[in-house]
Amino acid sequence: MREQRKNFAKSANRALDIFEFLSSKNGPARAVEIADALGLAHSSAHQLLTTMVSGGYLICLEGVRYFPSPRTARIGGWLSKCYPNIDGLYAIIEEIHDLTSETVTLSMQSDCVMRIAAIAGEEFREPLSAMGWQVPVFGSIIGGAALADISPKTISRLGRRARRQRVLSSGIDSGRAYLRELHRFRVKGYASGLAQAPGASPSWSIAFKLPQEDTRANVVIGLAGPVARVQNKEREIVNIMYRTIRAGLRDIGGSSL
């Protein structure tokens, strides 16, 4: 039964990957093209596509190309309302990457983990992919940025959940020392420090929490690179990030930092 649930979850993720691929392509695609892009066996891709067509989520054009059906339009319209400025946020991280040449991420807190929604730069793609495009809230700099202005009581509850979910290792503190670190981040206006991802060399990370919009979600823009390169230029990089984020939010009509 556990293996069956695992397969269902994998199929659900792959179905969403297909929508994301079609979105990036901005047009219909053949089954073999989708399979190759997502690293799927051609037979598995064909079976999944056929299932999505039978469910009314995709249409098949000329028997060979696949495209989202009108049934998905209402879902897409609602998601656009949930994240009306997402393209502008993607543009911000791309600009910061262009200005610094470092890896930049856009992430959102999902309970005890930070989900990576977008990445600009290649350096940390492989380890992040191996981690399922998520990092723990506790023990990560982007997580520290997300929690910097959260009440101690809320952080304590989150720490207990993180332990139950086994995303808080014994070496990570969520007590008074951690609260002092969060206070330091809050005073500075951003989080920074040493970051370590499995399969990657130690890096120095800098992270800004964005003003909360209607979703009330903790959204963070983070930057990471080799310790010597980023730590030594922290003030310069912080200024670049601050100016770029502030100008970008103004352009898309968001709240200012």
If you had to describe this structure to a student in words, what would you say it looks like?
The protein is built from eleven helices and nine strands. The chain is α+β, with helices and mostly antiparallel strands and 257 residues long. It folds into two domains: 2-75, Arc Repressor Mutant, subunit A; 83-251, GAF domain (Beta-Lactamase, 2-Layer Sandwich). The strands form two sheets. Strands 6-5-4-9-8-7 form a six-stranded antiparallel sheet, sandwiched between helices. The chain has a three-stranded antiparallel sheet with strand order 1-3-2. A hairpin with a 2-residue loop joins strand 4 and strand 5 (113-120). It is globular. The termini are far apart. The relative contact order is 0.11. Residues 1-6 have low confidence and may be disordered.
